[in-house]
Amino acid sequence: xxGKEVLIKSVLQxxxxxxxxxxxxxxxxxxxxEQIMAKFWWRNNGSNxxxxxxxxxxxxxxxxxxxxxxxxxxxxxxxxLAKQCWRSVTQPNCLMAKxxxxxxxxxxxxxxxxxxxxxxxxxxxxxxAKGLILQGxxxxxxxxxxxxIWRDPWLPGPHGGVVRGHSINHNYTLVSDLIDAQxxxxxxxxxxxxxxxxxxxxxxxxxxxxxxxxxxxxxxxxGSGLYSVKSGYKLLQKEGQSGSGSYVGVPLQISRFYSxxxxxxxxxxxKINMWRVMNNFLPTFANLQTRRLSVNVCCPLCKSEAExxxxxxxxxxxxxxxxxxxxIHLTILYHDAPWRxxxxxxxxxxxxxxxxxxxxxxxxxxYARNKVVHEALQPSVFNSLSFILASLKEYEMLNLxxxxxxxxxxxxxxxxxxxxxxxxxxxxxxxxMLQSVSGVICRDYTGxxxxxxxxxxxxxxxxxxxxxxxxxxxxxxxxxxxxTRVVLEGDSRTVIQKCQSDLIDTSLISPVIVxxxxxxRNFTALDFGFVRRGxxxxxxxxxxxxxxxxxxxxxxxxxxxxxxxxxxxxxxAVVSG
Length: 577
Description:
The chain has four domains: 2-132, no CATH class; 142-214; 252-402, no CATH class; 421-576, Ribonuclease H-like superfamily/Ribonuclease H (Nucleotidyltransferase, domain 5, 2-Layer Sandwich). Helix content is 48%, strand content 10%. It has 24 helices and ten strands. The chain has helices spanning 2-12, 17-20, 27-42, 56-59, 73-90, 95-104, 121-128, 130-136, 188-194, 197-204, 229-244, 252-262, 268-279, 285-290, 309-315, 317-325, 339-348, 352-375, 381-402, 463-480, 493-500, 510-520, 537-549, 561-576; strands at 137-140, 179-180, 185-186, 216-219, 421-430, 435-443, 449-458, 485-490, 525-530, 553-556. A six-stranded mixed sheet has the order 9-8-5-6-7-10, sandwiched between helices. Strands 1-4 form a two-stranded antiparallel sheet. α5 (73-90) crosses α11 (229-244), α12 crosses α17 (339-348) and α20 runs parallel beside α22.
């Protein structure tokens, strides 16, 4: 079925994409195409028939949620059309936007346009996707002069970003009325007079730039701030699942199983077989009997019990001998939990090589079972075990030959060049308290500590913002100490990439990124580098210790005890190396 997955995703679902960029296809047409794909997915080889073990809606869920990741065509159609809508909003001078404006909304903008009379099919299609844009867009606050407090979406978090549940105070109309332009901070006293405490915390979590950054419309469901079809489709899927009432989410343990299982370096046919085992989608005799098919339910391998998925993959003597010969003893982990929960728990407790072996064994067992049923060829444990071991060896060799070598990422702290200061930063974030602590440590080419600091931040809405604030503190601290040649390292890849990029950042943390880049101009030489947590241990420890202090702390040529211990270990490793 691995080939079928590729064919459906790369061919069958790709064919109508060109038309779906401009036209809203009827729902009946989308469902008819989905029915064709579902029949192709479930049918047996050489036959037009096949048992549909689950609905197409389940197959369109992401792989981490128990699906295969096929597209819901009607939702994907709207997400594609929303891309054109976003272009009309953010690029009003492009040719398409000018033509649409001249014809359908000459006196207003796209977001406030109406369907009008005698609309073309293209305009009706685009206008049908406007709701998705209105739901996901929001204002990134700069000066606040172009954003209305009570009407525009500018708040972070859910509820569309619009102020709700508060009476309108006409003394304050624009967001700029809530900002102290001199210090680039929020007027907390004014906010407390207008809003409740929860909303005040939400507003104070919005970063402000000291560089006079302007207000800009951004897409709130993508880290870049730009609309993408992928993020729009995910938003529609999330809405559809919550609105249907039939989908309640996947338990964390099972989600971890899917994430580990799909990430294994094995052929798709092996992974899809494991997916079918997990969801009890195999045509075992017990499952066929529940479908009212007249079959003998006795297991064809051991002929001792009814052939259910649970029996075939765990209790059957044949599979026990195969797993035992490979040192995998799943029965030790057995308890009275349902099959899916038990298998998820057992799988996640195995190491990487055992997971590979278990998946290939399940695939080999099902292959051997079909040989017995359809060709009357009784398998032997020795032959099946040889087949499993040979397959594992073959897959391992293929992975070595086909695997791409990415540049190594630093996993241990390395000393900088002489006359260069290395500044490591990290953050400790508390979601419950909406607070973070930045930890910054500066060291020279010998590994000796030059300075360190920890700084708490209030009203921090997520770990992404916490890392950006830590980076800002690192740059500011290095500049205040007078360092001119600096290497900054952190373990947040996204923040480092934004600081390295020459492109204009439009994300919600762009005020912090803009300020970082502005400060960077004061250095003779400054480089950003992404490292693993192991190479950033001292800064991580300092951020954790900073939670105890509760106030800004600074050290010259020293650090708190735990941080000092970690830094000394890293320095000793550099000297010995």
